Here is the input.
Amino acid sequence: MLTAAILWQSQLATDHSNLLITFIAVVAAAVVLQAFVLIGMAVGAYKTQKQLLSIAQELQAKAFPIMDNITRVVDKAAPKVDRITDNLVETTDVLRDKAHELDIVVSEVAARTRAQVARVDNAVTDSLNTVGRVTAEVHHAVMVPVRHISGVIHGIKAGLETLVGRAKTWRDAAASVATGVGDTED
Here is the structure.
């Protein structure tokens, strides 16, 4: 049994050794595979880095002149933009002041116009009232004497008619006495 145990142990040790060797071989193969993958990744990263570096250099070569041009344009335009901004501010201030002055002038003109309209209205009202009074006074001054004169004329007319009527009556009476016609007709 001892022999069998030793044999069995040696068999077991051999199986374990084989397993251990297989495990070590698998691990070694995995490490080698990882090494190849890492080397492939390093080569790919290096190529990508070279491509990115060439793109960056190309972009830098194209972008720097554009950026220089933009910087020059901005440097040239900055004083002009400042001047335009200052002019706009001044123009706005002047327009605001002129609008305020115009508002004051328009307010004054409106107030003066209202005052003049009131004066003209009062003058027209006074003139119309005066014309009415003068018309009434002229009417009274003319009509009263005209009525008096008319009365006198009517009186004279009535007197004359009476006188003329009596004279006619007297004449008719005198004519009838002279002809004697008056007695026979009665």
Remarks:
- The chain has one domain: 23-162.
